[in-house]
Amino acid sequence: MEAKKKKVILGMSGGVDSSVAASLLQKSGFEVVGVFLEFWKTDNSNFDDAKKVADLLGITLHKVDAKDEFKKKIVDHFISEYKSGRTPNPCVLCNPNMKFRILLNKMFELEGDFVATGHYAKIQEGRLFQAKDKRKDQSYFLYGLEKRQLEKILFPLGDHTKDEIRKIALDLNLPVAQKSESQDICFVLGKDFGDFLKKYIKSEEGEILDTHEKVLGKHTGLPFYTIGQRKGINLGGDGPYYVVEKNISKNELIVTNDPEDSRLTKDEMIVREINWINENLSFPLKKEVKIRYQSDPICATIEPIEDNLKKCRVKFDTPQKLVTPGQSAVFCDGHEVLGGGIID
């Protein structure tokens, strides 16, 4: 009797990556069941694309309406963080708390064996590693996944480059082969965060001061600025100016026109809500840390503040610019992602 195929529940977004992932999984001998996660009200065209690909590959496609939960857990949190003066990264919250949680629940419901997505990352023995294509690597956004989740997840694109994936899509005549890249934050249409935030946050003008407390002008609302920001401050004279601080209690934006100002750099940071994927670590830990998605890893010493390792002090070997509260710090050991948390 022929052995039963392993069943994979694949998140299909309607993009080229998850579409090619479906074909790669099929070629590896898996039975693939597609799941389209409807997170935002603009997802209709993406669902149509996912359905076209599923029909072409002979895959059953399920649609899960998660718009209300997504608005509450991800979008509202995003807005709340901006109101509090922080700059959040919604994708790192969405992956463990929405996307993979729903897919894993669907796996149990449909009696599947694994879940998969079109992320560029690798998993080995329940540990997370960077993808072959360092330009497209998305492991930074996946540090919130737990080891028990990773043991049930497949990333078919981990050993491929984006160019290879495009070529496979063209060779298969997939209708999404030439589809453009998805935007970084799915619920922010276009690239202007300010326009999106202004729909949900009541702006209050306040004073812009330099580091010597000299008033330079007016800001349009503190939530619309981020630490280290240079563009959009709209101050003439002897600029450009950089945001060094947001004084929430006084509604003041503090700026400097000196790119080497010491207030733009930090020797250390506090990281909270840390998820450690690799638990076989000894502290203090001397490893690398990424403080932004596109930043290079930097050497640092990580020291626990709390016994459960959920909050740590990170001391940089070299002072760093643009250490932004609300963004994610991701700890690495070479290509392995050890874990990560939120910059406090």
Can you offer a commentary on this structure?
The protein is α/β, with parallel strands linked by helices and 344 residues long. It folds into three domains: 7-171, Rossmann fold (3-Layer(aba) Sandwich); 203-259, Adenine nucleotide alpha hydrolases-like domains (SH3 type barrels); 265-343, Elongation Factor Tu (Ef-tu), domain 3, CATH 2.40.30.10. 25% of the residues lie in helices and 30% in strands. It has seven helices and 17 strands. The protein has helices at residues 16-27, 44-57, 67-83, 90-109, 147-150, 162-171, 193-200, and strands at residues 7-11, 31-38, 60-65, 114-116, 121-124, 127-130, 153-154, 206-210, 215-219, 242-247, 252-256, 265-276, 285-290, 298-304, 312-321, 328-333, 336-343. The chain has a six-stranded antiparallel beta barrel. A five-stranded parallel beta sheet has the order 3-2-1-4-7, with helices on both faces. It has a four-stranded mixed beta sheet with strand order 9-8-11-10, with no helix packed on it. A hairpin with a 4-residue loop joins strand 10 and strand 11. It is globular and about 70 Å long. The protein starts with 6 loop residues before the first strand and ends with a strand. The model has no long low-confidence stretch (mean pLDDT 93).
